[in-house]
Amino acid sequence: NYLYDKRLVMGRYYSVSGGNISEESLPIPEAVRAALKSLLLDRETGKGMPDPDEYQRYVTEWAETLNQPIPQIRRISFDIEVDSEKNRIPDPHLAERRVTAVGFEASDGVHEVYVLGERGKREAETPAQVTYYADEKQMILDAFEKIAGYPVVLTFNGDDFDMPYLHNRANRLGVPPEDNPLYMMRDAATLKRGVHVDLYRTFSNRAFQVYAFSNKYSEYSLNSVSNALLGEQKLDYGVPLDSLTPEQLASYCYNDARLTYMLTSFGDDLLMKLLVVISRIAKMPIDDIARLGVSQWIRSLLYYEHRRHNMLIPKRDDLNARFEGKASTDAVMKDKKYRGGLVVDPQKGIHFKVTVMDFASLYPSIIKVQNLSYETVRCAHGPECESNRVPDTSHWVCKRRNGLTALLIGSLRDLRVNYYKSLSRDGTLGEIERQQYSVVSQALKIILNASYGVMGAEMFPLYFLPAAEATTAIGRHIILETIKKCNESGIEILYGDTDSIFIKDPTPEQVQGVIEVAKADHGVELEVDKEYRYVVLSDRKKNYFGVTTSGKVDVKGLTGKKSHTPPFIRSLFGEITEILADVASEEDFERTKVRITAKMRECAERLNSRKIPLEDLSFNVMLSKAPSEYTKNIPQHIKAAMQLEHASSAAGDMSSFIGGGGEGASRKVKKGDIISYVKTVTRPGVKPVELARPDEIDSTKYMEFMESTLDQVTSVLGMDFAEIMGAKKQSALGDFFHGG
Fold first, then answer.
1. By the 8 A CB rule, do 411 and 59 touch?
2. Model-level pTM?
């Protein structure tokens, strides 16, 4: 409320003088100003808005904020290690066990680690400066002094462990409150002064995982994220963690702190810059951006604008009272109240020379061009607006005033598509400026890609069913009209999915014609997204395999690439896709089939002879809630988790625990953990990898899973799994090709 009422924009520059805060604007390149002026002069910029002048003011205000240089934020990361104890995981609220090490890495060149214990005979194998302590209290006091010297502090899982443990351990050791820079909230600890960013929360955020880092990681531990984004891992000495020498402990602890810091520094401080830019957009502090989901970012943005314009924020009951009827369309997906995007049935088979055309930010474009917002859809202005109908629904859209959602999402969308994307490639600008505008474009992509999903979700405070339904209805209308135009122009459509269409071997003139029609008729940008040498389409929607003209393998939705798939099947799937990547013509497929058949038979033989390690047979599933919360319909991974808990309790041996990063030789089974299990012939049909034996593996179940996974590709090639395993002759490929 303070930020909203004072009109303070997080991430902007301010000066403080005499207790007064005033906004400061740093100079920006003239070329950037000229590009904005050109955008504002374009008549298309305000198209679809009842009041184009108001819309242009929004575009200008956003540009003035987002064009400000992104600061280099001074920051430090830290990680702690704690004494281990058998059959007990250290409780951060009790903090009974000693803190044995604290590692630091900072933006100003600090590489340090404090270790409790005596220096050994060998030097620690680490570039960090190592300080040994005989007194734990003094070590923690020095750590506090180090942490307090930075405005931003980074941890990995610090909310749940490192911060509360340090705070409470200091209390147990008698550290005076005034010397403790941390304070406890209900469940977590944070800084009295400064910003604490828990990167575990940040990388667990689906918006960052999907839109910023392209699903490069699927698990959220420090080890998994670092391996995916940095190509580095935690140290592994091959011994229990409580058996590490002081020198090994120093290296281990410092490396965790270093990895944590590097997750914010790689790509020229990419993550920190994204946090700053998103903070500017969402009007939220950086630590909230780092912890909260995209729905709360967008809620904050909308609430800020309501307060800025002295608009009442409607209650859910007020919105529901405006429309008490049912949706105009029937939902296709379960638990949805209205119909979503259009998915055109794929033409099953192998198709050469395929172009994928994508509507740039389709739903944000529709929201802007059609002026969609909770207060404009089904407005109360009477016949004038009621004539402005939404296709295939009973809804209409206001023609008198701009919708708040349309102003915000539309202006951000236009800036990303027509301004920042080109600035990021402008050779007249310096490298620093181009890199900044690339980051801004990426931050806008995160917000825009999630915007409709948020506002179309019933849990969102400003959810209004007619507005959500109007967005998807117009999207379906645009896709269908585009397909109709393609058919009239002799362009063959192979597949379509929500905001993209797959077309067969179009000419450059045909592509340009489709782009121009989409812009003229619907006010949306259609662009070439990918060029495939060939695409393999199954009869399943949202599942395909393709090889681009540059030789890159592209897999969409196929089980063989999903993280929960056992590694041996995932590896086999990868080998098959690599073989398929070499295909350049139809004739190549006959030779390719022979190679694929050999690979599949070899894998089946290893499986049946039990030569595949248990780890490679494991299904890996993240717990969305604790095992104790399941009472009915218990999934297989929960059955395995329950066995693991029971076995740990019975054995009485919960060996070492290392704080921070969620890693360790044993773990408490809780929400967010990855459970690795195998399918067995013994009841209840699954076992955690830690408890299973090779002779218990149910080979039949794995063969069935391998068949269902590979069939998504091999069936399109005319290859039958049973025949492959039985060494029978394959059918001809000719029947599976379409259109040459």
1. yes
2. 0.82
